[in-house]
Amino acid sequence: MTASELRKKYLDFFKARNHVIIPSASLLPENDPTTLFTGSGMQPMIPFLLGESHPEGKRIADSQKCFRTQDIEEIGDNRHTTVFEMLGNWSLGDYFKNEHIEWMFTFLTKELKLDPKRLYFTVFRGNPALNIPRDDEAVSKWQELFKTIGVDAKTADFSERDGMKDGRIFFYDEKKNWWSRAGTPDKMPVGEPGGPDSEMFWDFGAELKIHETSPWKNEVCHVNCDCGRFVEIGNNVFMQYRKTANGFETLAQKNIDFGGGLERLASAVDDNPDIFRSDVFKTLRETIESLSGKQYGANANETFAFRIAMDHMRAAVFLIGDGATPSNKDQGYFTRRLIRRALRFADKLGIKEAMATKVANAVIASYGDHYTALQSKKDFILTELEKEEDKFKKTLAQGLREFEKISSGAISGVDAFNLYQSYGFPIEVTEELAKERGLSLDRIAFDLELKKHQELSRTASAGMFKGGLADASVETTRLHTAAHLMLAALRTVLGNHIEQAGSNITAERLRFDFRHGAKMTDEEKKKVEDLVNEAIIKDLPVTIEELSKDEAKAKGATGIFDEKYGAIVKVYKIGSGSNQFSYEICGGPHVTHTGELGGTFKITKEEASSQGVRRIKAIIEKKKISAPR
To answer: Which CATH architecture has domain 3-270?
Structure first.
């Protein structure tokens, strides 16, 4: 079974159970200031898990592309990737544990035909101090299903001393089997929802543990250890509690939030613990083998290099496709870091010719049928990769020679910064080179050098980019509405090619990125300000309607009509009839009339954000507006 077949089988399975299939959201979150990237399948669903009605109903399923920066350091083993697909299904106050657990057991054992005797599960052991009971309900349902196939699914309260104790279902504490956005129950703020979860594991076989070369051969085995024998293939979250000032109360709307890694499920079906041997990497793996003249898996060092090159280039293709072009800041920094690290390990594999576009073509060939935006943006993706490879290739050999000159002892912060500034080495690449040679590196001093450079050049913001809205306060809502007015005005002044490329909106100011190839003139900025302020003076009504994507497009709604939109979208209209000012797809909060902005819109800065992207910073000055002349 290929990964594409597995994805389709999953979506068809839940479609047959009255779930609406929605497309994947972008890897760059919209209206979420808490993170740079979409790192889980549930992340785009948070508003609906918190009670907002979903336009597609109460049963939803999808395959969501995800990117986790924290996994970059894990790449090189057989099961971690930075980009992955998360198969998900949600019940928003509809079905709950019994139905969901039965469906998951059926899907795993009947649809995927996984041997149930090699499936293991974990559940929440409860916390009496918080008055949250042990999840015996989930245990009973798993045991009932195992009984139908003649398996006695024993439970065990895991301890490192006693190991698995012949168990199949294991009780763990809230560090392993509790989910909330904030983490464990003690970290949850008042009002936050959360609940116990039940993780599902596939057993690849005890021989992985007991093999003579395994560093875990003398360790006590359990499903959550790192030996590679057991791999988590899915997590069932039972969101049934809300934290209050006095403890936890049961939610009126109990939700199901399931997430299962597509690549890991495919590995289980193949019964091969090496994700990089799965079919999703086949074309990519063969391309690198052809370019390097080496065989994947031939020796450990080369296998490590293969995995980094494959993972990082695949991730870069997806990131660029969603708008994170290589740069020295924001999300683009991670794209650059991945590409340059991949190129360094490709160099270690002996690849000296240009490789980025060849590898990218392999990724697009593997995923383009499902993620159609990769096909439509193919030329753009290839161009960005080619430019980045050309920049780094010109300095890679020179930078490595420079590193050898300074690597006789500890590497100073100044030396590390010189490699960053002059040779394009992300600090992580320099750290990796130092580690390979057993050298120390003064990271604190490097950070100080970088900070001085940023302050002098004024080219970098104080921190990494945080996308979306900082909160749902009145002031933030006003500035979010102002951003819609500004985008419409930019399209009027600069042309209909203008597209949003990111935003960050707080109660004090808005920051807005848009695709445009030239610096705005003072006259253009003044025209935009005048148009926005005219709309504020008119006190235009702001209304919302839910339409099919095709209806919204036919009625002239602005937005990028690609795979990220579901069948039903929310469209905000500012003004009506001859006074219609803006008509745009959006999911965030808005005022009800433009007069509520309560002041004068003013652009405080317009600057380059990255290649082909401009950034505007603007405020609402709290003073009476006079009509533009």
So the answer is: 2-Layer Sandwich (3.30)
